[in-house]
Amino acid sequence: MSSNMKKVSKSLFIVSLIVLLNIEFSIAQEKAKETPPTKIVLLPQEGKIESGSKESPVPIVIKKESQPTTVILIRHAEKLDDRSQDPPLSDEGIERAQRLALLLSNLTIDHIFSTPFKRTSQTVEELARMNDLEIENYEPKDLRQLPFDFYDKYAGKTIVMSGHSNTTPFVVNSLIGERKFPPQLDEDDYNDIFIITGTELGKGNLIHINY
What we know:
Blueprint: H1 3-34, E1 38-43, E2 58-63, E3 69-75, H2 91-103, E4 111-114, H3 118-123, H4 125-130, E5 135-137, H5 146-152, E6 158-163, H6 168-176, E7 192-198, E8 205-210
Parallel strand pairs: 3-6, 4-5, 4-6
Antiparallel strand pairs: 1-2, 3-7, 7-8
């Protein structure tokens, strides 16, 4: 296959992915709206409770309307093998980062998160520039609170999170509420995009594509 034919083939593949992504993204958002989260609030019973009574507050289930939050998770693109502790992206990784920005160009991105390393931040650098956003850092060693924040602090937003082979699966599994993916991605696995849309932790709808 000639060089021009390869470029055309790659362009058509990206266009097809963009169309597929937009369709599945819309479907996932509609599904998330169908089941708004429930909030259990403990309210005291009416009247005075006598001293020593074993009666307890009555659980009242309240429907809490909420807009779906979308979290797009990726592992950083291919890194340069320079034997340093913080390698930048390789030429192949830079090309993939540009492809990612193009693939997500039709979406309105509200926040972009990255660990404080060159390879993760450079993966979303072009995407941040296109959306006029600052890249917000998070610590990869402290991930337990972050999934809760997505549905609390960033409810109704679309978020991109750039991580690592051993952090991305943990967050994905937390958001969908099952251990669907192994604790660590394969070393040469750079092409996964995980898109989770939902209104509460552990009940997200997953779209998994390769790019």
